[in-house]
Amino acid sequence: MKTISCMNIDESLLYSFGAEEREYKKRESVFKEEDHALYYFQITEGKVKLNNYNENGKEFIHNILGKKQSFGEAMLFLNQRYPINAVCLEKSKIIRLPKNNFFEMITQYPHLSLEMNACLSQEIFYKLKMMQSLASQNPMQRLQGLLDYLKSYHDEDCHQCFHIAFTRQQIANLTGLRVETVIRALKKMEKEGMLTLKDRKILY
DNA sequence: CCATTAATTTCAT
DNA sequence: ATGAAATTAATGG
Questions:
Q1: For residue A2, what pLDDT band results from cuts at 50, 70 and 90?
Q2: Which UniProt keywords apply (predicted)?
Q3: A137 & A163 share domain
């Protein structure tokens, strides 16, 4: 299965439609919950997390995105405010294209619309898979849902050598588990031969 | 070396 | 089994 990176539009094309690049510091917010969606965002450098906080202040991470990936584009097609926050995990460079220019661009280049459909579909697919695994009470099942998804992004055939490049805390926040539970479940999964733990790396 | 951040363990529930 | 708090390890300046 081919990876569909959501979404990677040629940078010079973005610039020709009036996009600009901005640099963000670590922990800097790109947009916040309840903001209006005014731009298409695409990462050139760095990492961005999309998150929420529940009523007890516990963080839930929806996704973590990196180089050449876009985010928040679904909101451009709706008259809705963002339901999530976008925060840089490290110093990042992000290109942003104003909404109206974005629409001009996809009108002029319809193949981008098709690609966008593929991207948004991929996201929906991910959400469905995650919902399935998050519905389980079993921590290992939840972990496996996330790990399977992350590995599907990487299509080389590689038995237990795909490095999960997230911290235990991030994994916890992506699966709605506590960090201790993640650590314990990962150890149990290793014991059962489902994955390998080497140094502190998770190989799946 | 100190400060910060992450991973793991301990301990109480 | 779970989570808060304490401890240990690693990373960065």
A1: very low
A2: DNA-binding, Kinase, Transcription, Transcription regulation, Transferase
A3: yes
Its pTM stands at 0.90
Domain boundary among A108, A136, A152: A108
Q: What is the pLDDT of residues A29-64, one digit of tens each?
A: 999 999 999 999 999 999 999 999 988 889 999 999
- CA terminus-to-terminus distance, chain A: 17
Residues with Cβ within 8 Å of residue A48, at least 6 apart in sequence:
A30, A64, A65, A66, A71, A86, A87, A88, A89, A92, A94
Measure, in angstroms, how far nucleotide B12 C1' is from residue A142 CA: 26
Which H helix or E strand runs over A30? strand A29-31
The answer to whether some atom of strand C lies closer than 7 Å to the beta carbon of A172 is: no
A102 and A130, same domain (yes or no): no
From the CA of A185, how many Å to the C1' of B6?
18
Is the CB of A200 less than 7 A from some atom of nucleic acid strand B?
A: yes
**A150: confidence class by pLDDT, cuts 50, 70, 90:** confident
Determine the pLDDT at residue A1.
46
Integer distance in angstroms from CA A184 to C1' B7? 12
Tell me how far apart the alpha carbons of residues A41 and A3 are, in angstroms, rounded to a whole number: 20
Same domain, A23 and A61: yes
* Residue A5 pLDDT > 70: no
Query: Which nt has its C1' nearest the CA of A181?
Result: C2
Q: How far is the CA of A20 from the C1' of B5 (A)?
A: 33
